[in-house]
Amino acid sequence: VSSWTEPTHPGARTKRFRVVHEDYTDHKLILQIEGQAGQGGMLDLVRHARFIPKIQSKSVEGVEQVAGIGFSDSALSDMNEPLMLSFHFPPGEGWKTITVTLTW
Predict the structure, then answer these.
(1) Chain CA centroid to CA 95, Å
(2) Is the whole model's pTM more than 0.85, yes or no?
(3) Helix (H) or strand (E) holding 31
(4) Are residues 40 and 91 in contact, defined by beta-carbon separation less than 8 angstroms?
(5) In terms of Cα–Cα distance, which of 83, 14, 94 is closest to 60?
(6) Exposure of 84 by Cβ count < 10 A (0-12 exposed, 13-18 middle, 19+ buried)?
């Protein structure tokens, strides 16, 4: 299993997740994320206002609750402190796609 801190070698197959599409609208961010089945990942969410987003997530297969948001107590008052979006890809084989929608 590859760690996110390990360098990628030229010509190596991608093992890490990737954000394949982002869509921003008023009070909404939709992310499409691809990754290996059964694996997970984390992204820092940098905010431009004091808010804690609500989250909805689903996979192509319809699996609910594949993502969550974590934050420290200080993130409630300090908008410079990022929130942590964690997500998990459904089991199976190959690459899986999930859609995560954040609203505030």
Answers:
(1) 15
(2) no
(3) strand 28-36
(4) no
(5) 94
(6) middle
